[in-house]
Amino acid sequence: MAPDGIHAGEQHFIACYIIPLMYDLYRMYPRHAMPDGMKSLAGDLIYHMFGNRLVIEVKIGAVQLTKREVGLPVTMLWAIDGEGMLLIDWKTFMHRYLMIMNTGKRRGCRYRHYGPRVKISDLAGIASRKTAIYFRYGDKVKVKDILNAVRRFINGSIRRSSSRVRK
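Below the sequence we write its predicted structure tokens.
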């Protein structure tokens, strides 16, 4: 949330932060941006990089997936909330999300259209250097260090992903 009380949406974060950052890192723009609603495409940003498809799902505040989003071929989740920013490998995230969902089901929760709502800062605890990185606001981190960490993480995600681009 912005200091003046204005709530920015995912499309603002994508347009003002992620796309310029990715351009600075890789000198390329996404093949598709914000394809939600386009039934044949997964994720919010799709890049074709190094012969692979990088599919990024973006969330702000909390993560609550629809039934359709649970099975999508996404590479990574890029999420922010009032406490920090998280980049996490989709397989690692889905493993944790499904564990939370199964725990809820055992307690009697019913998930019809949406899964559980999970705070991004709660997912920070599963961050490891290979499958996730988390930047907490207020930590003294240089922009150069964030860029290098994001580049290392994305390059690793691309290598771990099996989403080859068809010619």
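The chain has a mean pLDDT of 81.
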